[in-house]
Aldo/keto reductase (Cyclobacterium jeungdonense), 330 residues
Amino acid sequence: MEKFALPNSELEISRLIFGCWAIVGGFNWGPQDERDSLAAIKMAYDQGITTFDTAEAYGGGASEDLLAKALGEKRKDIIIASKAGPADFAPEDIKKACERGLKNLKTDYIDLYQLHWPNPEIPLEETLGALQELRNEGKIRAFGVSNFGNKSLETCKKSSFKISSNQMAYNLLFRAIEYSILPQCISDGVPVLCYSPIMQGLLTGKFSSETEVPDDRARTRHFTKERPQSRHQEDGCEELTFQTISQIKDLSKEANIPMGNLSLAWLLHQEGIAAAIVGGRNAAQVRKNAASAQLALTPALVAALNDITRPLKEALGPNADLWQSESRVV
Ligand SMILES: NC(=O)c1ccc[n+]([C@@H]2O[C@H](COP(=O)([O-])OP(=O)(O)OC[C@H]3O[C@@H](n4cnc5c(N)ncnc54)[C@H](OP(=O)(O)O)[C@@H]3O)[C@@H](O)[C@H]2O)c1
């Protein structure tokens, strides 16, 4: 699998990263069998995916734990990207959070340690300084951020403690970062790692209308605020979302490329994108998704996907927070 060298680090990440959130089940995902989760992680490794994204927030450490259980003996061959939550950004707290992560992961270093969401209450420069200290101590090899918008990125740019990546929601049905965040990342030399790259399954074509989407996955701003778990105040754009999905599906049939693979490959063709972090609940899904890394799309196909998804991009606008109207991406 093709690799991408992250700046300000010695890390070479695989362009497809396995996302270890859904494999803990529970919030957002529902029941999950641990045997499927372990098989999914092992399949990712067997398919050449060497980078694994997790976070303490995923099952309160359960995701980090599963990753260690599945790939502990492969530690030297893999890159672990984990995250600290915003409540832990005070320097003394992030050091404790890192220790918890190391314990869950049963390792003595985390390759890429990321700030999960911005926390405007805590001076970012102090958090970045603490990350640099963790790096100097060998507990992390590099650090990055996630859900960082233009203002936070500006602070990162001015800091002498250099980040290696910004992890953002980005997919054919959610192109908000294209307005101003992706251009800033490109000009600052901060590669983007895309999360929810198949829009939590919607871009595989498995749901044909909004009523089929489970409530916890219908929390995003695509769906009406009337959905029980919604945390935004918007009417959503369900009709346009499913019209767009249907047009992508037609194009994928024409191109003879499964829709999820086409969606992942589209991301990997965008400027500034280092990798797509894709989840999978079982080995079969992971095997299927892994084939996307080898796909070369014609410029005409990329342009057609851009055109089809532009009305939805415009309807959802530049707010890069998938779930909330008052954007936490600052
Ligand atoms: N930094 C952040 O704030 C943040 C936020 C969200 C996610 N993330 C990271 O990004 C990773 C990926 O994002 P995500 O899990 O939200 O969404 P995703 O990767 O877009 O979607 C993953 C889900 O789609 C379904 N799926 C996957 N492959 C499939 C296939 N071939 N056919 C049919 N269905 C398939 C599975 O769920 P079902 O089988 O249940 O449909 C799977 O759990 C996470 O694991 C996490 O590491 C980070």
Observations:
- Residues 19-22, 53, 116, 146-147, 167, 195-201, 204, 206, 260, 277-281, 285, 288-289 surround NAP (CB under 6 Å).
- The first strand starts at residue 3 and ends at 5.
- The chain has a mean pLDDT of 98.
